[in-house]
Specification:
With about 650 residues, the chain is mainly α. The protein is built from 30 helices and five strands.
Length: about 650
């Protein structure tokens, strides 16, 4: 029966085999998920993310259910399918009850009731009810999470359709009709969900961010090797406030003791966020929101210091140790120092040349950049009049400049200037980029004519950049994740081979383990006189959902709105695919193999839990701690429901 796998005839032997198979099943599911995630990271949102990646997420349950119904004769397969239904129902209910409740408890924060109730007139009745019983601690999610819950709720509609033959005691003929109708509706919903993500890829984007968020520091550490004995933390591991203050001074280019949006955006450009400029404004807005406590659209030094202290402490907490930041980023520091040394000498000479030539002064009488003059200069440099400055045109400008005592390679100078001014990264400089870049240069030159000691301490400046990068990576994960994607996501042929190999290995493992696992569950059921449904419902989902459970618990403990929201969205998305894909497989087996429909109670149990939790998550974005207790109680209650309805033959 088991081929190369062992078998047993005792209860404890069956238990041992189930544990072993679950352990192997966990690894198989992890390989499938890892392979799919690697491909998703390489390709990004698109056809793969909308279709194949979604199927991969629900693949283990669907495959085990399919194997249970295909690899046996009709009589045995009918009973084995019940075991597969137990796995399918157990996975969805486990995620929506125990895992969901645990995430609420571990992700809870203190939110004063007064701050929540101020907008109560704009809330729906369910949310107002939650707020009226608000104990002060709970979880808050974003609106997109509620939309995902809505879609999950809709996915349970086929469960309702299939109940009609039993509720109205219809004949076998009508039972088959409703099986076909439910199957068509389920498949239609599944395909519609795929097409929806092709044209509205926000779900894919959120899934991609969730997948990549927890590994940003690890990804970067793998790409750096040099060492140094210096550290950016004090001896007791506390943040170095002098370093944080110097970061503020470097970022505050106009010297007004505040950082506005343009300065924050410019600083992001300086630390190599160059390949994600389509989201640059979003990055700036999110960082401004995080630091700007008084909401005046500017960050003062106290706000900046407090925000950075928080980030550094979170970095230590999240990583479990104090990283020696210089040690891992030293190569970047050396490169950055060389670039800055070049630009420090080139920029003043370029500006001096431009203002002493026929172009005239680029400053107004009050010393601010003269925007019309800069635009005229742009037109003069743009020889081919295509409203873009190319590398060759920039090189022609460099040829006319007589550099001072330090000779510069013309090509290198032109390349560095292109890199500084080309915000979009398309190797062309448009008028807006030119005006912004030259204005920043002029402001920097005028402010730094009398440099302070800390401003010329380049080593400290570079250390500041390191602290800013690492702490920003840990907190502003959405923006820095794009940095990792553009710079560190491996898209080589070897990366493809590794991803596909993991995917194939996982699928093979799941395929080989599915039948012996089902038979072991059946054997234990007979030996212990326990329905196979309950064994599959309780034990098997622990293996297939262990990875997402561990990941979800680890993420919500960070207690960040975005991370928490993505975690709950991932739970709802997984249940959604279990409902659509798993139920489609179940109905296909029943129709094409001629099985009788004996799963009304089990499906009703999933329907009730999905309806209750889906409604709560759809109509509210706030979840007090007590909702976690309510959700967890649904797990044992669902088992009681199956037992009671089954014993009394109510369905």
């Amino acid at each position: 029966m088991y081929g190369f796998l062992p078998c047993s005839k005792s209860i404890w032997g069956h238990v041992f085999l189930i544990v072993v198979y679950e352990y192997l099943l966990f690894h198989g599911e992890s390989y499938v998920a890892a392979g799919g995630e690697r491909i998703f990271k390489i390709l990004g949102p698109g056809v793969f993310g909308a279709c194949a990646f979604q199927i991969i997420g629900a693949f283990p349950e669907a495959l085990i259910l399919l194997v249970s119904g295909l690899l046996n004769n009709k009589e045995v397969a009918q009973e084995c399918v019940l075991t597969g239904v137990g796995l399918l129902a157990g996975s969805s209910i486990l995620l929506l009850t125990l895992v969901w409740g645990t995430c609420v408890i571990l992700g809870s924060q203190h939110f004063p009731n007064s701050s929540q109730s101020s907008d109560s007139t704009n809330q729906n009745p369910i949310q107002n009810f939650f707020l009226s019983l608000w104990p002060g601690y709970g979880v808050v999610t974003d609106s997109w999470t509620g939309y995902t819950a809505w879609i999950m709720l809709i996915s349970a509609i086929p469960f309702t359709i299939i109940q009609f033959p039993v509720l109205f005691d219809l004949s076998y003929f009508w039972e088959r009709i409703f099986v076909v109708v439910a199957l068509l509706v389920s498949v239609t919903f599944l395909l519609s969900y795929f097409f929806y993500q092709l044209f509205q890829p926000w779900i894919q984007g959120r899934q991609l961010l969730y997948l990549k968020h927890g590994h940003l520091v690890v990804d970067i550490l793998k790409h750096v090797q040099n060492h140094t004995n210096e550290t950016l933390f004090s001896d007791d591991g506390a943040p170095d406030l002098s370093v944080i203050r110097r970061i503020f001074k470097v970022t505050d280019r106009d010297g007004d003791e505040t950082i506005d949006a343009s300065e924050l955006k410019g600083f992001l450009q300086e630390i190599k966020f160059r390949k994600m400029y389509s989201d640059k404004d979003k990055a700036t807005q999110d960082m401004m929101k995080e630091f700007d406590v008084d909401d005046n659209k500017k960050i003062n030094i106290n706000e900046f210091v407090k925000g950075m202290e928080k980030w550094v402490e979170e970095t230590k907490k999240d990583s479990g140790e104090t990283y020696r930041l210089d040690e891992v980023l030293r190569p970047w520091m050396e490169k950055k120092r060389e670039e800055r040394e070049i630009m420090k000498n080139i920029v003043p000479e370029i500006l001096e040349h431009l203002q002493s030539s026929t172009h005239g002064s680029l400053l107004t009488e009050d010393g601010t950049p003269d925007i019309p003059a800069i635009k005229r200069l742009f037109k003069d440099i743009d020889h081919d009049k295509d409203d873009l400055i190319s590398y060759s045109e920039l090189r022609d400008l460099m040829m006319d400049i007589k550099f001072g005592s330090i000779p510069h390679d013309i090509d290198e100078a032109a390349s560095k200037m292109m890199e500084e001014l080309d915000i979009s990264g398309d190797k062309l400089i448009n008028e807006d980029e030119f005006v912004t870049g030259l204005s920043n240069w002029l402001n920097a030159i005028s402010i730094n004519q009398t440099p302070k000691p800390e401003q010329i301490n380049e080593e400290s400046d570079y250390h500041n950049h390191f602290l800013f990068i690492i702490t920003t990576m840990q907190q502003n994960w959405e923006e820095t994740d794009k940095l990792v994607e553009s710079k560190f996501v491996d898209k080589s042929p070897f990366a493809w081979i590794k991803a596909i190999s993991l995917l194939v290995l996982g699928i093979v493992m799941l395929g080989l383990l599915a039948e012996p696992l089902i038979h072991s569950v059946q054997s234990l059921s007979k030996a212990a006189s326990i329905p196979s449904f309950f064994i599959a419902f309780i034990f098997v989902p622990l293996a297939t959902n262990a990875r997402i459970t561990i990941s979800a618990i680890g993420e919500v403990r960070r207690k960040k709105l975005n991370i928490t929201s993505l975690t709950f969205s991932e739970i709802y998305g997984t249940v959604l695919m279990n409902n659509l894909l798993g139920f489609s497989v179940l109905l296909s087996l029943i129709y094409f193999r001629g099985f009788s429909w004996d799963f009304s109670v089990e499906v009703l149990m999933v329907l009730i839990v999905c309806a209750v939790m889906g409604c709560l998550a759809s109509f509210s974005t706030v979840f007090p701690v007590w909702t976690a207790v309510f959700a967890c109680m649904l797990y044992p209650l669902s088992l009681v429901l199956v037992t009671v309805l089954g014993d009394f033959n109510w369905l």
